[in-house]
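Worked problem 6 (solution included).
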Amino acid sequence: MTNVQSLLTISRPISPTSGRFNNVATTVASLIWLACALGAVLLINANVVVLVAYIIVTVLAGIYVMVALKLANQWEKAVVLRLGKFSSLKGPGMFWVIPIVDTIAQWIDHRVMVSPFRAEKTLTKDTVPVDVDAVLFWLVWDAQKAALEVEDYRSAISWAAQTALREVIGSRELADILIGRAKIDADLQKIIDERTTPWGITVQSVEIRDIVIPQDLEDTMSRQAQAERERQARVILGESEKQIAASFAEASLMYKDNPTALHLRAMNMLFEGLKEKGAMVIVPSSAVDTMNLGGLSGMVSLAQLQSQQPKA
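Solution. The predicted structure is:
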């Protein structure tokens, strides 16, 4: 039901326009009828036959101008049929038609048209139902074909776009649709343009606006993306640990044959740990022996104790 409503919104009815009047024709006809009235006043004393003939001629001339003089806007073309057969394209600007003999079948708009269309609950290649909204930009390049080759070119291009969208969705998996919108747009433009070219219509571009997937699948994909981010974080952390271990291994080689440097490093570690008042430094017993921290730590403890005792 939604598709039908959308199509009705896109496709405006095409009504016969042979009775489409314009301001120029109305003004000229009014001037002729005004001249008819003035002439009738001036010829009121003339021969009755002459007066009647004058009135009939001027009235018919005004009606002819009203019916035969047409005006097409800059972006319009009028498709003229003569006795039911194609005669010519008229416009833009003013032009004349022969009343009764000529009829204007359609006024064709040559501007770029924008038509939204959609595909609802369409199954992808991996059987996932999706709703896709898209916009079609198109224009009529041959008014004769658009008027004569298809009954209602607006409805035809709307249905062609919708069926092409369903066809493209059904031939792709959901992942390809979500990450490959540009490719889908290009494929849609090509398919729709091939179908509408015989109607004198060309497709300039197709743009997908939105892709809606089922809520439960969206939640699942969100959890999957979160798990993937956590996995990447753990991989990065592992790589960082490898780099840190390699740096420590390289540093240990520098301290291996240099006990003085190792002792200075131990002093720096204690200093950094005791900068904050009340700090507690936990040092492994193996490090106490290896880095000769025993005496140093005792001196530090004694100094801290003395600083904490009240002065006499």
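Discussion: The longest strand covers residues 129-140.
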